[in-house]
């Protein structure tokens, strides 16, 4: 598949609904998951797209695009329930063909309308009844065991809404990792949270068994941060630097990552220069096109649209080249979004 077709698909999305799909939630969502040319691909679902997923192929204007498409079947663990009757599907979801992902706390102190990240829909999936507010560690362990046994899951991602505590939610993440590792010790787990006030919590996460960590800033441009994520922007960029440095010390080079969104109005060259600095520190910049998702303020209030394809391609190519030069690939991470790669085009570029 050419990079520009993959970029077009990432931006325009497709019509249709693959068996593995998600609606609202933390991070990019409202998408359908396929394996395209052997790589996980999370494609936005968009009723206005010229691309169509017809059940087995991806068509453009009615013609087969010739993409090598593997459909991911609905996983068997979705049909199980906890002893209390909670469907496993509400506790964790399959992303791509082999990633189990959960949001351990589905609420966020930053979700007030004047504070929330304008691209985010973390509490919408809670409101719709698609998930539960707080996941119990023992329940997640049960789900992880079943997902590995029945569906061949090879890694797990645990993210969290930000809590009011100084740990920013990391301590509940640590409890969840401990429970999962006690049940499925060989399953690599990535945790994701804001920079904790007390950096020692990063060691607690590692000692709990986490294999990798994502500390996501989304933009390195303070003006963009204030406009798009007023709540998160109250955490200064230097706090992220301190947390990334400590995380690289604890987890190792290339086991730490951050999302960088393309399409929030930042300068592309500044974004690439910032990514180069992160790579130098040993942090993998997971470059992801901004996805306008229903239910977010970006769509419902700002009427924001997907970024320009040429900019996404340029940034992705240049960051992929920098990553390759540094010998850092997503696939070398033990777990996490960069290891999955579905929401980005970096893996298709060899990074
Ligand atoms: S890149 Fe992350 S958010 Fe996207 S599908 Fe993969 S695990 Fe999920």
From TrEMBL:
Its cofactor is [4Fe-4S] cluster. GO terms for molecular function: 4 iron, 4 sulfur cluster binding; 7,8-didemethyl-8-hydroxy-5-deazariboflavin synthase activity; metal ion binding. PROSITE patterns: RADICAL_SAM. It comes from the Bacteria. Residues 94-332 form the Radical SAM core domain. Keywords: 4Fe-4S, Iron, Iron-sulfur, Metal-binding, S-adenosyl-L-methionine. InterPro entries: Aldolase_TIM, Elp3/MiaA/NifB-like_rSAM, F420, rSAM, rSAM_MSMEG0568, rSAM_sf. The keyword S-adenosyl-L-methionine applies. This is Radical SAM protein. It comes from Mycobacterium adipatum. The lineage of its organism: Bacteria, Bacillati, Actinomycetota, Actinomycetes, Mycobacteriales.
């Amino acid at each position: 598949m050419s990079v520009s077709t993959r970029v077009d698909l990432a931006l325009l999305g497709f019509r249709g609904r693959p068996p593995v799909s998600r609606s609202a939630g933390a991070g990019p969502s409202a998408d359908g998951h396929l394996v395209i040319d052997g790589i996980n691909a999370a494609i936005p679902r968009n009723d206005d797209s010229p691309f169509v997923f017809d059940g087995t192929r991806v068509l453009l204007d009615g013609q087969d695009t010739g993409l090598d498409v593997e459909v991911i079947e609905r996983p068997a663990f979705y049909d199980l329930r906890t002893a209390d009757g909670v469907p496993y599907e509400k506790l964790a979801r399959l992303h791509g063909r082999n990633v189990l992902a959960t949001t351990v706390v589905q609420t966020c102190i930053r979700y007030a309308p004047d504070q929330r990240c304008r691209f985010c829909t973390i509490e919408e999936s809670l409101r719709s009844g698609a998930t539960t507010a707080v996941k119990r560690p023992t329940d997640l362990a049960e789900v992880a065991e079943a997902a590995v046994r029945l569906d061949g899951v090879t890694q797990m991602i645990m993210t969290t809404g930000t809590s009011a505590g100084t740990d920013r939610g990391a301590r509940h993440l640590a409890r969840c990792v401990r429970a999962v590792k006690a049940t499925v010790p060989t399953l690599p787990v990535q945790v994701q949270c804001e920079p904790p006030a007390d950096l020692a919590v990063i060691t607690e996460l590692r000692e709990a068994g986490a294999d990798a960590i994502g500390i996501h800033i989304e933009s390195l441009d303070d003006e963009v941060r204030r406009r798009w994520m007023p709540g998160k922007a109250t955490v200064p960029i230097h706090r992220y630097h301190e947390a990334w440095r400590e995380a690289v010390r604890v987890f190792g080079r290339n086991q730490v990552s951050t999302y960088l969104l393309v399409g929030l109005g930042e300068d592309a060259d500044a974004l690439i220069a910032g990514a180069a600095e992160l790579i130098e520190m040993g942090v993998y910049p997971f470059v992801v096109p901004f996805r306008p998702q229903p239910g977010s303020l970006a769509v419902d209030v700002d009427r924001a649209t997907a970024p320009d394809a040429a900019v996404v391609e340029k940034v992705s190519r240049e960051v992929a080249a920098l990553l390759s030069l540094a010998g850092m690939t997503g696939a070398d991470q033990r777990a996490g979004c960069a290891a999955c790669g579905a929401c980005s085009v970096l893996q298709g570029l060899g990074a």
